[in-house]
């Protein structure tokens, strides 16, 4: 009798592992700028017009964002809709700045620049935008990392301001869904851009750092997210 029970348990375990195995599928994430709380907006702040130009993708692996390691073996890969992570990051930056009340134009890769006269041109480098999900018995741990450099060029005097962003968020979920990954990446983007705005100020339609730094650089860091 015990022998049959062991066989049944082993069979169920094999079925479970097979169901949890990855087949190498690619899942495209819909990344967007999550609106910040209304309390973060300063109605008296000076508004400017900005042109966001494509960020340079310096990531070693540009074809995807990361992967999920399944309990039963195998992988599921994560990418962004359209397949262009740097282009997506450029769009998200533009969306966030627009939510802050700025007049924003976003230049798409391969397209001519809009015929506008912005106060500031914003571009930069995407050094890391990655997400990994590791499934284990009873839970899945998801980690998202972001590293980027944002460069602003002021039209008035051609002065520049450079901000380094570095963010990381981790979440543990009992039942994994793709939305968990998408939400975590969007939250990491929001937190980093919120830190960016917290360190910048507008003076006479130019961007300046709030803190006086010789190299015009700041490095906001995003802490780990709350475990779910």
Radius of gyration: 22 Å
CATH class: Alpha Beta
Shape: elongated
The major pleated sheet works out as: 10 strands, mixed
- Can you give the mean pLDDT? 83
Let me know the number of strands.
Answer: 12
**What is the number of helices?**
3
Order of helices and strands: HEEEEEHEEEEHEEE
Low-confidence stretches: 3-21, 213-228
* Head-to-tail CA distance between termini: 41 Å
CATH architecture: 3-Layer(aba) Sandwich
Question: Which secondary structure elements does this structure contain, and how are they paired or packed?
Answer:
Blueprint lengths: L1 H18 L6 E4 L19 E4 L3 E2 L8 E4 L5 E6 L4 H15 L3 E4 L13 E17 L2 E16 L5 E14 L4 H21 L1 E4 L2 E4 L11 E2 L6
Parallel strand pairs: 1-5, 2-6, 2-7, 3-7, 4-7, 9-12
Antiparallel strand pairs: 4-5, 7-8, 8-9, 10-11
Describe the structure.
- This protein has 228 residues and is α/β, with parallel strands linked by helices.
- The chain has one domain (21-31, 46-222): Rossmann fold (3-Layer(aba) Sandwich), CATH 3.40.50.
- The chain is 24% helix and 36% strand.
- The chain has helices at residues 2-19, 85-99, 178-198; strands spanning 26-29, 49-52, 56-57, 66-69, 75-80, 103-106, 120-136, 139-154, 160-173, 200-203, 206-209, 221-222.
- A hairpin with a 2-residue loop joins strand 10 (200-203) and strand 11.
- The longest helix has 21 residues, at 178-198.
- It is elongated, with a radius of gyration of 22 Å.
- Residues 3-21 and 213-228 have low confidence and may be disordered.
């Amino acid at each position: 009798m015990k022998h049959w029970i062991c066989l049944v348990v082993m069979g169920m375990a094999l079925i479970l592992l097979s169901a949890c195995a990855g087949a190498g599928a690619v899942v495209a994430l819909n990344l967007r700028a999550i609106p910040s709380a209304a309390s973060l907006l300063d109605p008296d702040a000076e508004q400017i017009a900005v042109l966001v130009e494509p960020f340079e993708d310096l990531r070693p692996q540009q074809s995807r964002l990361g992967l999920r390691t399944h309990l039963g073996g195998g992988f599921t890969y994560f990418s962004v809709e359209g397949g262009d992570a740097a282009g997506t990051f450029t769009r998200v930056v533009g969306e966030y700045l627009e939510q802050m009340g700025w007049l924003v134009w976003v230049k798409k890769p391969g397209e001519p620049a809009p015929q506008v006269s912005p106060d500031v041109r914003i571009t930069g480098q995407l050094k890391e935008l990655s997400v990994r999900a590791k499934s284990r018995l009873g839970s899945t741990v998801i980690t998202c990392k972001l590293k980027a450099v944002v460069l602003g060029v002021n039209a008035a005097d051609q002065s520049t301001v450079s901000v380094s962003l570095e963010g990381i968020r981790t979440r543990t979920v009992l039942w994994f869904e793709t939305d968990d990954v998408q939400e975590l990446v969007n939250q990491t983007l929001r937190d980093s851009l919120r830190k960016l705005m917290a360190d910048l100020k507008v003076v006479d339609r130019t961007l300046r750092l709030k803190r006086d730094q010789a190299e015009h650089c700041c490095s906001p860091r995003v802490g780990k997210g709350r475990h779910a």
